């Protein structure tokens, strides 16, 4: 038996229960891993609340660093005792140990510690696919990235700076603006103090940007579309303020033949080749020092409900880990 967070019905943080669960032996293609650190991400909230429905009872958590304890038949790319990390479905990383698909595990280099590995995978690979594959950002371009002081936003600012891209971010309040500026952004707009669309257009001489990255959702959708150049790309990859609803595709035509996409990390890492590409780029950026993973909050695994309360109240910055 191991301890794990389980949800028996969707709802608030109090619906996450710290329970005993039984682990089976790994089957063909599977691995049993014991977590050393677990990453906290906003998608965990979506699973807990039922915005992304799961069959109850279910686990929570998509990311972790671990040590391999046992392997099923047919697994050759990792060995018992290896340090590994992952960011992959199904949810269940909020646990002391778990059995999972071994093809989702990648080895962690010696120069990256367990907490960093647990905190960098989902957010780091999200940034990788966003800036390299959803839209290939090029040196000299200007882009807009919302929630610049958040976990994904901080990694994105550093990554974009390394690529030579002018990154304009948004954040709420002077402290978060300062934090984003410290993480690679050239300019950061305080959306509590000014209209981000008006300021963006001022900063770009009225031209707008070719791409907007938006994990906020409903609250920023319309303004984001109005920041784009003709035939620009709106990348909506999260719903922190609530999902975008009742959207008319004709809006894209009226605003300049725009493109809109709703990507997910799981699609961009669906094959082993894509996973290795994405994880490899993240590990290279972190190992080189171009991207620093700053862990600003740590909670015991049993305190996951409080971690969710703080995350939803926007009390957290940078990366957060749960410790078994």
UniProtKB/TrEMBL annotation:
Record's GO cellular component terms: cytosol
Gene3D superfamilies the UniProt entry points to: Medium-chain alcohol dehydrogenases, catalytic domain, NAD(P)-binding Rossmann-like Domain
Keywords: NADP, Oxidoreductase
Residue ranges of every copy of the Enoyl reductase (ER) domain listed in the record: 11-322
Keyword Oxidoreductase: yes
A molecular function (GO) term: quinone reductase (NADPH) activity
Annotated TM spans: none
Pfam families referenced in this protein's UniProt entry, alphabetically: ADH_N, ADH_zinc_N
PANTHER family in UniProt: QUINONE OXIDOREDUCTASE PIG3-RELATED, QUINONE OXIDOREDUCTASE-RELATED
NCBIfam families linked to this entry: PRK10754.1
Identification of the protein by name: Quinone oxidoreductase
Taxonomic classification: Bacteria, Pseudomonadati, Pseudomonadota, Alphaproteobacteria, Minwuiales
């Amino acid at each position: 038996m191991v301890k794990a967070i389980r949800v028996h019905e969707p709802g608030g943080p109090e619906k996450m229960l710290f329970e005993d669960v039984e682990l089976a032996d790994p089957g063909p293609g599977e691995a049993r891993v014991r977590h050393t650190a677990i990453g906290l991400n906003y998608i965990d909230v979506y699973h807990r609340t039922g915005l992304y429905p799961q069959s109850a009872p279910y686990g929570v958590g998509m990311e972790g660093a671990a040590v391999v304890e046992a392997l099923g038949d047919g697994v050759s790319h990792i060995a018992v005792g290896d340090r590994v990390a992952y960011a992959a479905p199904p949810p269940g990383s909020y646990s002391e140990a778990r059995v999972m698909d071994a093809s989702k595990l990648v080895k962690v280099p010696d120069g990256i510690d367990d907490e960093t590995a647990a905190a960098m995978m989902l957010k780091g690979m999200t940034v990788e696919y966003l800036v390299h594959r959803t839209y290939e950002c090029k040196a000299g371009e200007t882009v807009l990235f919302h929630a610049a002081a958040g976990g994904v936003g901080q990694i994105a600012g550093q990554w974009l700076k390394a690529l030579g891209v002018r990154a304009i971010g948004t954040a709420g309040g002077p402290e978060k603006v300062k934090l984003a500026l410290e993480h690679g952004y050239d300019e950061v707009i305080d959306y509590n103090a000014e209209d981000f669309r008006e300021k963006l257009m001022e900063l770009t001489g009225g031209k707008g940007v070719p791409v907007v990255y938006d994990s906020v959702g409903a609250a920023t959708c319309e303004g984001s579309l109005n920041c784009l150049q003709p035939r620009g790309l709106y990348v909506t990859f999260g719903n922190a303020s609530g999902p975008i609803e009742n959207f008319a595709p004709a809006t894209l035509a009226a605003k300049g033949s725009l493109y809109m996409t709703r990507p997910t990390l799981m699609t961009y890492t669906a094959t082993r080749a894509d996973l290795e590409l994405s994880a490899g780029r993240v590990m290279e950026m972190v190992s080189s020092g171009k991207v620093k993973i700053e862990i600003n909050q740590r909670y015991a695994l049993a305190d996951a409900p409080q971690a969710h309360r703080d995350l939803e109240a926007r009390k957290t910055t940078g990366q957060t880990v749960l410790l078994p």
